[in-house]
Amino acid sequence: MTLLPRSPIGVETLDAADVDPAVARATLRDLAVVNTLCGGRRAVAVAFRRLLRRHPDRSSVRVLDVGAGAGDILAHLVTVGARLGVRVQPVAVDVLPAAAQLCREANLATVVADAARLPIARRGVDIVVVSQLLHHLDRQAAVTLVRALDRIARLGLIVADLRRSFAARVGVRLFSAAMRFHPVTGRDGAVSVRRGFTAGELRDLCSRAELDATVRRRAGFRLVAVAEGSRAHD
């Protein structure tokens, strides 16, 4: 997912730069289903609506999704914006070519780039979304990335990730089996949950990154942090 240092907890297939493209594609599509049915998409959309309503004069916003995966969340934000009368200009970023291809198939402008080396100027986009990426990193690397992403967002930064719990670990295994997902999806999903956060941990991470962020729990064992228009690094 990124060249930044990986989490020391477990190993996920999508962490590998040489992951089989067919496996990556199947797993990413499975994760898009999980996001739709288990709260990942909605968790980001609620935060996105909140940011848009804080800026009712905006008729157009550029949204950057870092670690976009299949592009399902970003595509949903385009729809959410349209319902609110706001034109969303989406830009998907992922280091995996398989992910980038899925994003292009979803008609999203796409950049293949590492999260640590984004070709984006300071305050170069309106809203930055980073969903289910931070748990792939060690905590200090996550702090560094969040601080960097805050620098490029004019209106706000949305950080969404998994809430760590035993119930979530069991649930992702059972759900993956019931949905007949690729075997990697359930296995990696359980590791992802182990790598996840408590609300306090995500709040602390944002504080260390010098963000004034609000952290909320959402359905589906999700956590969302929103930092609105921070200027701490200008």
Explain this structure.
The protein is α/β, with parallel strands linked by helices and 234 residues long. It has a seven-stranded mixed beta sheet, sandwiched between helices. It has helices at residues 21-37, 40-53, 72-83, 97-105, 139-152, 166-178, 183-194, 199-208; strands at 60-66, 87-94, 109-112, 125-131, 153-162, 213-218, 222-228. It is globular, with a radius of gyration of 16 Å. Helices cover 43% and strands 21% of the residues.
Structural class: alpha/beta
The number of distinct structural domains comes to 1
CATH class: Alpha Beta
Summarize model confidence as the mean pLDDT. Answer: 93
pLDDT < 50 stretches: none
Proportion of helical residues: 40-55%
The DSSP helix count reads 8
User: What is the gyration radius calculated from CA atoms?
Assistant: 16 Å
What is the N-to-C order of secondary-structure elements (H for helix, E for strand)?
Answer: HHEHEHEEHEHHHEE
Number of strands: 7
CATH topology: Rossmann fold
Would you identify the CATH H-level superfamily? Answer: Vaccinia Virus protein VP39
Largest sheet: 7 strands, mixed
End-to-end separation in angstroms reads 28 Å
Strand order of the largest sheet: 3-2-1-4-5-7-6
Tell me the fraction of residues in β-strands, as a range. 15-25%
The appropriate CATH architecture is 3-Layer(aba) Sandwich
- Characterize the overall form: globular
